[in-house]
Amino acid sequence: MSRKKERTPVLTGKKALIVGIANDNSIAYGCARAFREVGADVAVTYLNVSKPGELEALFARIEKEWGQLDILVHSIASAKKEDIKGGLLNCSADGFAMAMDISVHSFIRMAKLAAPLMKDGGTMFAMTYHGAMKVEPNYNVMGPVKA
Questions:
Q1: Contacts of 82 (CB under 8 A, 6+ apart)
Q2: 129 flagged as catalytic
Q3: Which stretches of the chain are DSSP H helices?
Q4: Do residues 55 and 46 lie in contact, with contact meaning Cβ atoms separated by under 8 Å?
Q5: 126 within 8 A of 109, measured Cβ to Cβ
Q6: For residue 77, which of 92, 102, 103, 123 is within the disulfide window of CB 3.0 to 4.6 Å?
Q7: pLDDT in tens, 9-40
Q8: 71 near 14, Cβ under 8 Å?
């Protein structure tokens, strides 16, 4: 008589922070669900990455609650509505800079805060979209930003 060996889920004991869950259709939501299904402890947020002090407060809380971080998922992108509607060639310089700051540079700021918490190494993901590699209608500003 053979017995099936019970396996410990592969991410048991790992701590994952998922940033950018807008709703249950978000890619970030799917990531959070998948990490949870394989045993990770998951913290989720959709914070304002442009507001001074919010990232620092988030990572301070992660350190206080968990003492470590193993996985960071950055799934944030934003641009001004008028720049998206106007198309890439009509995108304002300040609008493009804002899109870069929120959609790209915020990952660098998060990585800087996450790295000291990844005491045994870790993994950091930044989400993009295939529109970053090919022309995609209605992704005209975000394609170059996320590329």
A1: 92, 95
A2: yes
A3: 27-37, 54-65, 81-86, 93-100, 106-114, 142-146
A4: no
A5: no
A6: 103
A7: 999 999 999 999 989 998 999 999 999 999 99
A8: yes
> For the chain, what is the mean pLDDT?
91
79, 129 in Cβ contact below 8 A?
no
First vs last C-alpha separation in the chain? 55
Active-site residue identified among 139, 141, 142, 146: 139
Of the candidates 129, 131, 132, 144, the residue annotated as catalytic is: 129
Q: CA 137, 141, 144: angle at the middle one, nearest 5?
A: 100
Q: Would residue 29 show up in a list of annotated catalytic residues for this protein?
A: no
pLDDT at res. 8: 87
Per-residue burial over 1-40, b if 16 or more Cβ lie within 10 Å, else e, is eeeeeeeeeebeebbbbbbbbeeeebbbbebbeebbeeeb
